[in-house]
Amino acid sequence: MKKSLLFLLFAGLSLPLFAQWQKMSTNLPDSALVNWISSPSPNVVWGTSVDWAEFGIEPQPFIVRTIDGGATWTTSLFKDTYSEWATDIAALDENNAFVITFDFATGEGSVYRTSDGGTSWQELNEADNGIAFDDPFGFPNIVHFWDHKNGIILGDPDITGHFEIYTTRDGGDHWVKTEDPDLLAAADGSEFGTFNGFGANGANTIFFASSPVHHRIFKSDDRGLSWKLVESPYEGDTTSFNSITSFVFEDERRGLAFTQYNPNYPGGSPNSKALSCVQMTAAKAGNPSPLPIIQNTRNAAAP
Q: 194, 212 in Cβ contact below 8 A?
């Protein structure tokens, strides 16, 4: 039986900025920007790069890393080419990290890992590791690790039309594809995953969202081995071009789903470009205490 979540839409004001930020040099080329980041501890941060001026033509293969809270940064290359875009990164500690990519030249996805702080990178493959994003239409969106052993990679529907999901229980040496022919089937050829449209809640529960105009939310309570659908705030709304970009949770019952207007879809309202927020709480008796609601968080920051 599908477990429903109650979603309440809230309006709000822009969050004022009080935090002070210090600009840091990551030693990237002038045209490259830090895109995705992963921080396994207060002083360790890893990040991927992209050249937005050349986006879709010449993605950047650089990985940045700091182990002293940002005082100094080092760079490495997961591959010596400029056709692969790193779509996400998961750092386990100062030495171990995983990067997932999509190659615009070949239309294939890849997974890379390092165990020496980025000095060298190994590309995982199907024969040795069980990863097959190099099949046509392979597009990994999200990589996440709960600890040094347990991780998951979420991708777009593969050539069979099913969302491509892999889990590992041995630190990424071996991956197993999650098979669910019915539930993980894309609604049609226009449904796919979203970048960072993901959230973990507690030790085992995770969510991921699909693209507009489908807006489906998938939930797993066993770290990606099995899945079910939960109610979406945009369920049935085929006119909304807002993407669910992330989920965050205060506890096992209460959380927030962040949404943002996606300019890649024609017909969307130009007034919807602000990042908004949806309150999400599990159905239960009584009146759950609300979480803070943040609106227009494109104007907000935290140190």
A: no
Q: How many domains does the chain have?
A: 1
Q: d(Cα 52, Cα 106) in Å, to the nearest integer? A: 20
pLDDT tens for each residue of 129-150: 999 887 777 899 999 999 999 9
Can you name the residues that pair with 185 across neighbouring β-strands? 162
Closest by CA to 86, choosing from 130, 33, 44, is 33
Q: How many residues does the chain have?
A: 303
% of the chain exceeding 90 in pLDDT: 45
Three-state SS at 136: coil
Domain of residue 33, CATH code: 2.120.10
Q: What is the DSSP string of 150-166?
A: -EEEEEEE-TTSBEEEE
Amino acid at 200: A
Provide the residue range defining the domain that includes 254.
Answer: 5-299
Is the pLDDT reported for residue 1 higher than 70? no
Segments of the chain assigned E as strands: 5-9, 33-41, 44-50, 62-66, 74-77, 84-91, 97-103, 108-114, 122-123, 140-145, 151-157, 163-168, 176-177, 193-201, 205-210, 217-220, 228-230, 242-249, 254-261, 276-282
Measured distance CA(96)–CA(159) in Å, rounded: 31
Do 70 and 24 touch, CB atoms closer than 8 A? yes
Q: Return d(Cα 91, Cα 66) in angstroms, integer.
A: 12
Query: 183 — phi, psi (to 5°)?
Result: -70, -40
pLDDT of residue 264: 54
pLDDT at 205: 94
* Paired tokens of 127: 């024969």
Provide the 8-state DSSP code for 193: E
